[in-house]
Amino acid sequence: MAQDFWASSGFRLLGRSPEGWLVPGDDYLRHFLARAELAPPPEAGPGERHLHARLQDKPRLEIGAADLAAVEDADARENWTEFLRFRDRLLASGSLEACYADQFRRPGVDIAPPFLDALAQAIVRALLEGTADPYLARAGELLFRRQRVSIEGGRVLAADASTIEAYAETGGFGNVGRLLRQQQTPVATVKMDVLNAENLPFYFLRDELFSFLLDLTPGGEGAKALAAVLERWVARLAGVRVAIEPVERVADERWRWHVGLDVESTRLLNALYLGEPVTDEARRRLATLFRLTFADPADALAEAAGSPVYLGLAFREDHTLKLKPQNLLVNLPFARAS
Length: 338
Known about the structure:
Elements: E1 15-16, E2 22-23, H1 26-33, H2 46-57, H3 65-69, H4 74-93, H5 96-103, H6 113-127, H7 134-140, E3 147-152, E4 155-160, H8 161-170, H9 174-182, E5 214-215, H10 221-238, E6 242-247, E7 257-260, H11 263-274, H12 280-285, E8 286-294, E9 309-314, E10 320-321, H13 326-331
Helix pairs in contact: 4-5, 5-6, 7-10, 8-9
């Protein structure tokens, strides 16, 4: 049975174009006004509260420089400036998919990362509409949430970085836990479970907690699920059908093309491709590899047609990982503009 999840994505507030694209309406814009970055805190001044109330009433209202200048707090003014740039770009694009793809055709990305992640989350939620597979949903989180990776017993385990940080601060007990830690009162550690066959049904009960670890070891369900999500991502945003499968290593004397799915893997794959020295420690950070093939070789550039493209996913020295799904749109060898 299909499951609903990620209510915070605003997916249920989106319309559909005749082509099936995700169309933002007033309620979708309003859901951003409830976020911590924009909702006025108790100490907010009247200028900030007035601006918020006006946009709550009319989310498409044109806001001038004087309206922004009336916001008392400098950080709040910056947040409102970023939101309005995002809002205007989104409405001009007509759909979330068009807005997202357009950002990476520009000379520079000028939408703030939290808003790009919000677009990615809603798009991934659409890709997974109708699914009952928790592995797909958990793998989809990687496209819009930073991870912290550990290697345990040969397994590559990805945990949500923000959840880890919150647990470290509060022990998983919110403000009460934070208070107890400030008073140096021992707080029991909240265990994050690796998603597996036994606890799969609990994912959709805890989807907004982002509290499951995903095993990304090649050959496991997590890596397969991530490959499936990336296939759907390319199909929706680039209009090209591809097949992606996890692999343990690149064993290809005719290696022609690769794409790093994050900054670290791009650097490592470039070095390996050029035959430059790579330390064992750096190789260990290349956590997961995938092989991508085009369903129709004509969709690939001539120099890549008929050859696989290798994708890498790596974590930094501090064990954090931020997958950049836009790299698949920008760096894959498409024969034509998507």
